[in-house]
Design brief:
2 copies of one chain form a homodimer. With 189 residues, chain A is mostly helical. Chain A has 7 helices and 2 strands. Chain A starts with 9 loop residues before the first helix and ends with a helix. The structure holds a DNA duplex (28 and 28 nucleotides).
DNA sequence: TAGAGCATGTAAGGCGTTACATGATTTC
DNA sequence: GAAATCATGTAACGCCTTACATGCTCTA
C-alpha cells in the first residue's frame, strides 16, 4: 500500500517535470528513463510507481484513466496547477557551491527542465550562478591540493586534479550554454 | 543493534581503504570525510559506525582498544589480511562504460586508493580502461543528441552537451594522469 | 561555567534496489 | 505456441539521513 509522504523526492521532481512537458503513463516514463541518458535515474517500477502515487496524493498530478492498445488499463498523468507551482519553485532554487558538491546531478536535472520557466533571463541567472559555484568550488579543491601536496599519495592527488579539471569543464560549458541562450534570446525578439 | 550483513557497501570500502592507509578510529574517519573533499561521503555517525561494525563482523578490520586524550575510550581500527584481500579485489575491478554511467564517483574513489595495489602497471591499465569508457560513453551521448536534435528542447540539448564535455574532460584528465604515472615509474626504476 | 571538541553510538524514517506477481496482446 | 512488449504494481531488504543520547576534557 502507498504511504503518505509529505515531500517530493528528486525522482518525484524528475517525473513531474517530464509529465509537465508531456502527459504520460507510468510505463512511458519508465521507458524514458531506460532509453534516454536522463541522469542516472532508475527505470525500476518499484521506484517509479510509488513516486507517482505520492505525486497523486499530494495533488500535483491528475490521472486520466483510459485503455492502452492492449486491453489493459492505461493511466495518463497530467500536471496540476499545484504541481506546476511546486515544480517551478524547485526549478528556481539557487545554485550554490554546496549544491554542486553534493547534488550536481540534481542541479543539472533542474537545468534540463528550465525551458518550462519560460524566462531566458532566469536561465542566464542560473548559468551565472552555476559558473560562479563551479569556479568557487574549484578554487577550494586547488587550494586543498596544494596545501597537502607533499603528504598526499600520488593517486589521491591525481583524483583531486580530476575534480579540478571537471569543475573547470563545467565552468567552460556554462560559457557555451550562455552563448546559446543569448542566441536564442535574439531569435525570439 | 548491529545486524549481520553479507556485503560491504561503498562507504564500507571507503572506510576500509582509509584504514588500510592509516589505522584510525571512527571519529578520525568522520573528520576525514568532513574536512577533505573525499567524494561526497557523509560524516554522519549514523552511517559510519554501523558500516564499521559491519567491517568488524566480517573480519575485515581489527579493533585495538585504547584511550583517547580525553579519558574516554578510543578504538583504533586496523585492516586485517582478509580486509586487504577484499579491498584489493574491489580496487582491481574493471572500468566499464556502464560503471562510468552509474557510479563514476565510486570509480574515482577506487582510483584514489590505487596506491595500495603497489603496481603502477595496474594504474596504467585502469586509466586506459577509464579513458576508453569515457570516450565510448561520450560517443553514445553525442549520438543520441544529434539524433533527436530537432525534437529536443533547448535546455535538454545543452544538458546533454554538458555530459559530452564532461566526459571529454575525463578523457583528457586520463592523459595527464597517465603521464604522471609514467613519470613516477621512471623515478622508481 | 558555558561551550567547543573528543568519542561512540541508537532510533525512526525515507527512498531506492532487486525480485516477484499478474495478465493481455502482438510478433516470430 | 513461445517470447517480447505493454502495463501496473507489491514485498523484502539495504543503506543513508536526521536527530537524539551520553559523557568526558579543555579553553575562553
Amino acid at each position: 500500500m502507498a504511504r503518505v509522504k509529505g515531500k517530493v523526492s528528486t525522482l518525484g521532481f524528475a517525473l513531474l517535470g517530464l509529465i509537465r512537458m508531456q502527459p504520460a503513463s507510468g510505463y512511458e516514463l519508465r521507458r524514458i528513463f531506460a532509453e534516454t541518458p536522463m541522469a542516472g535515474y532508475s527505470n525500476s517500477p518499484g521506484a517509479i510507481y510509488p513516486a507517482l502515487q505520492n505525486l497523486k496524493m499530494l495533488g500535483l498530478v491528475r490521472e486520466q484513466a483510459g485503455i492502452g492498445r492492449t486491453g489493459r488499463e492505461k493511466r495518463t498523468l497530467q500536471c496540476s496547477a499545484a504541481g506546476t507551482k511546486e515544480l517551478l519553485a524547485w526549478l528556481r532554487q539557487e545554485v550554490t557551491p554546496e549544491s554542486l558538491h553534493r547534488e550536481l546531478d540534481v542541479v543539472l536535472l533542474r537545468f534540463s527542465f528550465l525551458d518550462q520557466v519560460h524566462d531566458l533571463g532566469w536561465s542566464m541567472r542560473f548559468l551565472e550562478q552555476f559558473q560562479d559555484a563551479a569556479k568557487h568550488y574549484r578554487a577550494q579543491l586547488a587550494n586543498s591540493r596544494t596545501q597537502m601536496k607533499p603528504y598526499q599519495p600520488l593517486h589521491g592527488q591525481l583524483a583531486l586534479q580530476n575534480g579540478e579539471q571537471i569543475l573547470e569543464a563545467h565552468a567552460k560549458w556554462a560559457n557555451t550554454a550562455i552563448a546559446a541562450i543569448q542566441h536564442e534570446r535574439k531569435k525570439r525578439r
